[in-house]
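Module 6 notes. Inverse folding takes a fixed backbone as the condition and produces residue identities as the prediction. Think of it as a translation problem where the source language is geometry and the target language is the twenty amino acids. Below is one complete input and output pair. Work through it position by position during the lab.
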């Protein structure tokens, strides 16, 4: 049986994808790699923008936009790893 990802896991996955692409990725590849439906992706995307974990910047080509992490986004990734490590350490 496949376990559904929690909201925190999905957010971590999205932020990690951005980081792995040298902190610069277009929206469509991010959507595809996040393994979410378009609708769910847009919900998460909007929330991440609203909470200042990511930002959109204009790229040089055809008014395209790149998605990057903010300092707050990088901090989320670090803290998430710490919490997961703590949980694993106690077998929870």
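Target side of the pair, the amino acids:
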């Amino acid at each position: 049986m496949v376990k559904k990802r929690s909201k925190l896991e999905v957010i971590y996955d999205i932020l990690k994808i951005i980081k792995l692409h040298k902190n610069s990725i277009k929206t469509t590849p991010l959507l595809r790699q996040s393994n979410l439906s378009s609708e769910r992706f847009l919900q998460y995307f909007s929330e991440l923008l609203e909470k200042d974990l990511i930002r959109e910047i204009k790229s040089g080509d055809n008014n395209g936009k790149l998605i990057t992490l903010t300092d707050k986004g990088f901090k989320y990734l670090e803290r998430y790893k710490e919490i997961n490590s703590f949980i694993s350490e106690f077998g929870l």
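Reference fact for the lab report: The longest strand covers residues 54-58.
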